[in-house]
Amino acid sequence: MINALGLLKRRRFLPLFVTQFLGAFNDNLFKTSMVLFATYEIFANEKQESFFNALAAALFILPFFLLSALSGQLADTMDKARIIRVVKIVEFGIMALGCGGLLLARTGQVTLPVVMMLGAVVGLGIHSTFFSPIKYAILPQHLEDEDVLGGTGLVEAGTYLSILLGTILAGFIYRSIPLIAGTTFLVALLGYISARMVPPAPRLGPALTLDYNPLRASWRLVAGTMHIPRLFLAICAISFFWTIGSVLVVIFPPLVKNVLTSDASVASLVLAIFSIGVAIGSVVINLMLRGHISARYSPVSVIAMGGAVLAFWFVANRWEAAPAGTLYDIAGFVSHPGAAAVLLTLMFVAIFGGMFVVPLYAFLTTTVPKDQTARTVAANNVVNAGAMTIGSATVAAITALGATASQLLLLVAGMCLVSAWIAQRLHRACD
């Protein structure tokens, strides 16, 4: 299992990996381009920027809360490969709406373009809601048990490497709307082609009667999963982690602009460093656990993550701002005496985060029968979405009361302690 990279040679894994990689790249290219465009081209106020980013984050995860139950039922009822292909077709329409909003914003309009861009964010949330249960639930169906942790780690690492590439590219092309549109449509096409190569993954258990009432279905799904103590603790730990992640994603662009006094290319670099770190953490924990699915290292990993967040807060607040009316570009940022400390602490935040969360996802997909994995992941997504919505709303509310992006880092550090407590309880219950 240590040689998890060997899975990339298998047809039962590679097309899914490529499809997920391209989808995450496209999602992040558009969302990052939109956030940077809004931060640097539309708004000129830190509170407006933070509120817009928090609103976009909340709208993206809202479909997870409303539709995860349906997506989980469908994935455990229908051929998962077929659902993947349908989802990839829908991606073309989402990109058309979002890029149309960016083009209109270039004309000087604000309200309609912002509505269109946020509408695309909702669409991407729906897209991810229906794909997310599949990318994890299909692994136990296509891989041997001893390869599931390695496959999960590769999916996570690939996801964050694709986020890295999308983030870097967005930082350089966010002002060129035609280039964004052309790139997103090309990547969507390549993703659809790779999706057609995913081997069939038909229903394994008895047929389900679909419940189309989102609230009732969500309640039943969560209630049917969360009564199992080990799953309850794993889902709670993952939910806290993604709440932390949602807060960080919301505050990073305003923090880079207003605290590190740097331009959009540096904001892209900061998000890219975060993505690299999570990918590294995903691989490292797989090597440490040697294929054994366990929460053994999760408590110490998230405590270390909290310590790295505090270190990042400390070095960010000691940052020497650029001269009034100017922003550092990448060259100016990298040559700054404090740049190495900022990037290093951020890298460790992400590495420890990856080490924390990957075993928990592998745990979700191997604890239940294979015909229930998609619904288990979907139940996790419902709870995650609720927690992340609360996190994004809290950021918006606290920001409205006058809190700065750097001050919100202290909230993140405190949340890491709660995650560590939950992970320790899970470790004791399972290992």
UniProtKB/TrEMBL annotation:
Membrane topology: Multi-pass membrane protein
InterPro entries, per the entry: MFS (IPR011701), MFS_dom (IPR020846), MFS_trans_sf (IPR036259)
Principal location listed in the UniProt entry: membrane
Molecular-function GO terms, alphabetical: transmembrane transporter activity
Protein keywords: Cell membrane, Membrane, Transmembrane, Transmembrane helix, Transport
Gene3D superfamilies according to UniProt: MFS general substrate transporter like domains (1.20.1250.20)
Transmembrane segments: 50-71, 83-104, 110-132, 179-195, 231-252, 264-288, 300-319, 339-364, 376-398, 404-423
Xref: SUPFAM superfamilies: MFS general substrate transporter (SSF103473)
GO terms for cellular component: plasma membrane
Cell compartment(s), UniProt: Cell membrane
Limits of the Major facilitator superfamily (MFS) profile domain: 12-431
Superkingdom of origin: Bacteria
PANTHER family: MACROLIDE-EFFLUX PROTEIN, MAJOR FACILITATOR SUPERFAMILY (MFS) PROFILE DOMAIN-CONTAINING PROTEIN
Protein name: Lysophospholipid transporter LplT
